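Ticket reopened. Same input as before:
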Amino acid sequence: KNEVEQSPQNLTAQEGEFITINCSYSVGISALHWLQQHPGGGIVSLFMLSSGKKKHGRLIATINIQEKHSSLHITASHPRDSAVYICAVRRSQGNLIFGKGTKLSVKP
Amino acid sequence: NAGVTQTPKFQVLKTGQSMTLQCAQDMNHNSMYWYRQDPGMGLRLIYYSASEGTTDKGEVPNGYNVSRLNKREFSLRLESAAPSQTSVYFCASSGTGARLYFGPGTRLTVT
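Engineering reply: fixed in the latest deploy. New output:
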């Protein structure tokens, strides 16, 4: 079993919909990252969190340490949000482990 | 600031050839990383450098060598390329805040 699991693997939404991407992990962590990979291939860090919730614009990330689960929400989705969203966890003592990503397509 | 830069963007090699991927960052970060990304798999760490003068193996180091030339530059060398090394390679860096900054990637094909 992978140490970081994301769901769904693929997601298609209509413009304006509320989107949720989930990340579950099975190891002790010191932090969790959400990354966005654009269709052109570039990777951008969206959030780094170790507890609670963070918000940036239409993006919200939450983490529940007890349940070893994090969610990334996108409100009022837009076609420009189409990308692969990657969850990565930093082990308590060690490097990052990456999920396989969730491919999001937002249709106009 | 340019952030993290990588060269080249694309490369085609024949089996057995060697090449060096270059990475530089201008954010004064201590930590630098080399990852590879293959279809259907998450990013995997090849090597990392926690500070100038130190390097450590990651998850998939076989067939690669690295050099942390100075604080800015971290290069990845393939001594004898194999088709299994066909991948997209990303360099990344992080500072004390631990947020990751990625380069644009190098798409490598080994025939």
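Chain A touches chain B through 21 residues (CB under 8 Å). The mean pLDDT of chain A is 93. Please confirm and we'll close it.
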